[in-house]
Structures are given as C-alpha cells and as structure tokens.
Amino acid sequence: xxxxxxxxxxxxxxxxxxxxxxxxxxxxxxxxxxxxxxxxxxxxxxxxxxxxxxxxxxxxxxxxxxxxxxxxxxxxxxxxxxxxxxxxxxxxxxxxxxxxxxxxxxxxxxxxxxxxxxxxxx
Length: 122
Description:
- The chain is of the alpha+beta class.
- The protein has a single domain, classed as Bit1 (3-Layer(aba) Sandwich).
- It is built from 4 helices and 5 strands.
- It has helices at residues 22-43, 45-53, 66-78, 109-116; strands at residues 9-15, 57-63, 83-87, 99-107, 120-121.
- The protein has a 5-stranded mixed β-sheet with strand order 3-4-1-2-5, with helices on both faces.
- α1 crosses α2 (45-53).
- The radius of gyration is 14 Å and the shape is globular.
- The two termini are 24 Å apart.
C-alpha cells in the first residue's frame, strides 16, 4: 500500500518507568483510545471516518519517562493533532494522578510517524 493510500493511525504511548502490569497497560491504552476517538468524532469527523473505514489502526509504543512523553505531547499539540493524557485514578498500581499513557490521533500516519519514529513498540 502506498503512503498516500494508508489510512490514519493512532499512537498509544506507554511510560516504561512505571513498570505497569500487562492488564493495567491494556486498560490505560483503552482509556486513551476511547477518549481520542470521541474527540475525533466531535472535532475531526472526516479523519475519524477514514480511520474507522481503514481498520482503526493503533500502535502501542514505549517511552522512557514523563518528561519525554511531555515533549512528544507538546509537539503533537503544536501540530494540531488530537491528544489525550491518561491520568490514573490511583485505585491499583500507581498513585492517583499519575500520567500513564499518551494517546495521539487518529491522524495521518505520516504525522504520527514523525513524532514517534524514535520510539520502540511496547
């Protein structure tokens, strides 16, 4: 598939320094994906429709710490991309208010790749 024909994507960026369990990561990524999708439905309906019709691509990536996450968040916001920071309620593994996951998108895959090209898959 050529780059121009690839559908939009969503990135779910997880902090490695928190050593979250697999279940916790799944739930936190779900929070980010749902919140990003709901925002897109309201504010970016065309890209939301393209994202859904092309398979709702999501990629889960690892990031070292909160500071690195905030740098990517700032770049994503500056680029006008949909973002959502998950702040945990504090009932299980981390204290209340701990930022666990950054969701970006749905957005053009190329826009997300520029921001995340140095990250590895989770």
